[in-house]
Amino acid sequence: MDKKEVKLDVNNMFVDRVGKEHGLTIEEVNAFQDKVSQAHNNIKKDEPGFMKLPFAQAEIVKEILQLVEETKDRYDNFVVLGIGGSALGNIAMQTALNDPYYNYREDLRKGYPRLFVPDNVDPVRFRSLLEMLDLKRTVFNVISKSGGTAETMSQYLIAREAVVKEVGEDRLKEHFIATTSEHSGYLLEIARREGFRTFYIPDDVGGRFSVLTPVGLLSAAFCGIDIEELLAGAAFMADKCSTDELWKNPAYLNAVLHYIGYQKGKPLSVMMPYAHSLKDVADWYRQLWAESLGKEVDREGNLVNVGPTPIKALGATDQHSQLQLYMEGPFDKIITFLEVEDYGVEVEIPELYEDIQGVAYLGGHTLNELLMTEKKATELALTQRGRLNQTIVLPVVNEFTLGQLFYLLELQTAMIGELFNINAFDQPGVELSKHYTYGVLGRKGYEDKKEDYFNRPAKDDKLII
Ligand code: PA5
Question: For a substitution probing ligand 1, which of 80, 121, 149 has the most ligand atoms within 8 Å of its CB?
């Protein structure tokens, strides 16, 4: 596999391209060098777990590949039971690296199972999935770092019952894997009791940073994705980003650009791939950015209520949905295009209807040309209108470049967290609604939340129309 480098093109963020009113200046960026060097030292000192992953998993990779080799013939389906950080990376990798119709095309699967990641507890969707699958030929990976997430554990309980009906208690453990924390949690307890094969998520790797742990690697390997190349790509980007020099480190540079943009009234961060295969990477990024950066207090406990809002869009589809807003609406966005130089296939547009000029001009071109021209045209139009935009260029979409992209976006998140002086690795804001749910459904220790819930103000009928 070619070792090709992912690059960040930030030309269209600056005054000479987008004009004085909204553009950034090189001097403004350079003024952050000291702050970035200091933040770099902090990051190096704390060394968040995701930074170690590209270098510390040789044994795990071996174990995963051996499991896939030994068991894949038993399964037609691999199902991920998990939510948020325990699901989005799996989806992103599958969409990026396997054929769009992988699940439908046995000829392309080469003996690997289909992949399903419901990432929700919608009753219609989940019931339908279980009814559709031949459970005798299905393996579930139950993924929960905390081991107690209500959605995931509910999915598990339902799937367990369905599987037992099909195969019996004795064979249950052939159909479940648990991926969880090594030291504690209900899922770990259950996995031990049931004798499930278990993989671990390192303590210092949070859900949304866990795509390159067994959380993502297991489903990827079960679907024929080269997980060694993924990690090699991440290691390559880690090496490139090991310097604190702003103009040599794309993760740090992008963090600074977004930070300055945020301070200048651009709190919306749009990720817009011009490759359908990367649309779920934008979804993964949306969670990474939102949960990491949306914070009430800074590290000293001061009320700050910060956080750039991530938005996912897709070129060319959203040119017909969002672009009008991006072109003419408020100047509150930074648009990051994901560009792919080589799609791996070329689709020609036939030359037909010579006499109908409005259609005939398309003939002889390719869909590749059309999509890339649309990207460049959109970029040019936005730039001319003073809209900040930049491009992450992937020479191709493969394991090596995707590994680079994951690492780049994770490190960028850690750096901007430093600049905001917040903890990018916790998510206290999601707890309260969880606790209400626990209380209402009867979990011990959450009785007060149940009371709150039922004492909440009655709905005013006049306000329901
Ligand atoms: O990024 C995160 O930490 C969250 O999105 C979690 O991944 C999500 O809430 C699921 O948590 P868990 O893996 O503990 O079930």
Answer: 149
